[in-house]
Amino acid sequence: MRKSFSAKDRARIFAAHGGVCGLSGVKIGAGDAWHIEHRVPVALGGSNDDENLYPALVEPHAIKTKDDVARIAKAKRQGRETGQQARRAIKGGSIPSRPFPKIKTTWPKRPFRGD
Among candidates 22, 70, 75, 23, which has minimal Cα distance to 44? Predict the structure, then answer.
């Protein structure tokens, strides 16, 4: 579930980074639109702690988010645990696993003599 940040949280994070976009390094102006961004996405094990958060202008943020979505999808395809799954396992929930494939043997039923 996504955390919504209050105006107080946004102001604290903005001030901690000096009003500079963490992605482009550009000073965020008074009328510029910006979001709060995670260094490590929550889905990949990141947290909502202040050390993992920084302000980001909307355009660079959209590009990074697109990359993050691809990284999360790749982790899921490769069967690696994402941050959500790891947290669920710690809290006692189970992570379903795939069953082993049922393979029929292709070996002959009787010994091969080579006659």
Answer: 75
Neighbours of 96 (CB within 10 A): 6
Q: Which long-range contacts (CB under 8 A, 24 or more apart) does 62-65 make?
A: 63/23, 64/23, 64/37
Give the C-alpha separation, 19 to 2, whole Å.
23
* Burial class of 57 by CB neighbour count within 10 A (0 to 12, 13 to 18, 19+): buried
Q: Which helix (H) or strand (E) holds 54?
A: strand 53-57
Query: Do 54 and 22 touch, CB atoms closer than 8 A?
Result: yes
Q: DSSP character for 17?
A: T
pLDDT tens-place values along the chain, 115 residues long: 567 889 999 999 999 999 999 989 999 998 899 999 998 888 888 888 889 999 999 998 888 888 888 888 887 777 666 665 665 555 555 556 666 666 666 665 666 666 5
Its pTM stands at 0.61
CA-wise closest residue to 19 among 6, 8, 32? 32
